[in-house]
Amino acid sequence: MSIKKTRISFAVKSLVIVFLTIFFYVLLGTNTIEQSDILTSSFSDLSKTRIIQKLPVIEDEIITDKPGTNNVYDYEALKQHILSGFGKSIPSKWGEKITGVKSRLNTNEKVIALTFDACGGKNGSGYDKDLIDYLKTNQIKATLFLSGSWIDKNEEITKNLSEDPLFEIENHGLTHKPCSVNGKSAYNIAGTKDIGEVVDEIEKNAKKIEAITGKKALFYRSGTAYYDNVCVAITNELGYQVAGFSIAGDGGAKFSVSQIKKALLKAIPGSIYLFHMNQPRGKTFEGIKEVLPILKDQEYSFVKLSEISLR
């Protein structure tokens, strides 16, 4: 009898132990704190170290990786990555067409790219609707470089333009500054003062564009299109190409119609033109309207920058 009771007692104790083990396992499992996963993308896919946060997203600190996903990266970690890589770099080149600035399409075919800058600011936040409507009516593709300050004044227009397959929206800098790591100026516009501001100028406007359009920018053109060679390298490290130009088409929207026509008729296969779409009082639309039919008669076609590799 005592042996039987002992066996029953042992069985009960075993069941209790099993039950408690399962209970504590479940309890601990549901309270496990997941750690951040650190993923390193190749630089062909934005080239950034992304920290995948499993925490509420703080808009000013965390930037969405892809529309429709929960992937995010830590902005300050990105900036520190750039600072650690370029903090001791001293620029040796300054200009519009230094090494690394892509100023031509990589083709010998009769294609050209029309690019339009929207600079923003007090006197630069207009919208040349007649120009854009002309491009739409004639099914002419174009790449539009928008600054953050212009977007702030024209957010609905930005969204509408991004939805038209004729156009692609690209990055003209958050505040339209020349790209410098030491505050160098161009056309009396002070450049970004240091590496941290370079990252802000490029990346914060890229964030703004993506938030409105749902699409990532592929190209960056600085305000004034001036860069030092360290800025070019930083832009590439951030995952963007630096888009220059072959021909200044409207001289900052200050050219006369005859000057615009003269510039446009310099077209050769692979040319990239720089115009402006933010100065409706300028002559850009009138000049383009007169010359594009001539270029079409010469069997030129028009492409967006993303459609052909650059050089």
Write the layout of secondary structure elements.
Layout: H1 2-30, E1 37-40, E2 49-52, E3 62-64, E4 72-74, H2 75-86, E5 94-95, E6 101-102, E7 111-118, H3 129-137, E8 142-146, H4 148-153, H5 155-162, E9 167-171, E10 185-186, E11 189-190, H6 195-213, E12 219-220, E13 227-228, H7 229-238, E14 241-243, E15 247-248, H8 257-264, E16 272-276, H9 284-297, E17 301-303
Parallel strand pairs: 6-14, 7-8, 7-16, 7-17, 8-9, 12-14, 15-16
Antiparallel strand pairs: 1-2, 3-4, 5-13, 10-11
Give an overview of the whole structure.
- With 311 residues, the chain is of the alpha/beta class.
- The chain has two domains: 37-86, no CATH class; 94-307, TIM Barrel (Alpha-Beta Barrel).
- It has nine helices and 17 strands.
- The protein has helices spanning 2-30, 75-86, 129-137, 148-153, 155-162, 195-213, 229-238, 257-264, 284-297; strands at 37-40, 49-52, 62-64, 72-74, 94-95, 101-102, 111-118, 142-146, 167-171, 185-186, 189-190, 219-220, 227-228, 241-243, 247-248, 272-276, 301-303.
- The strands form six sheets. Strands 7, 8, 9, 15, 16 and 17 form a six-stranded parallel β-sheet that branches.
- Helix 6 packs across helix 7 (229-238) and helix 8 packs parallel to helix 9 (284-297).
- The N and C termini lie far apart (94 Å).
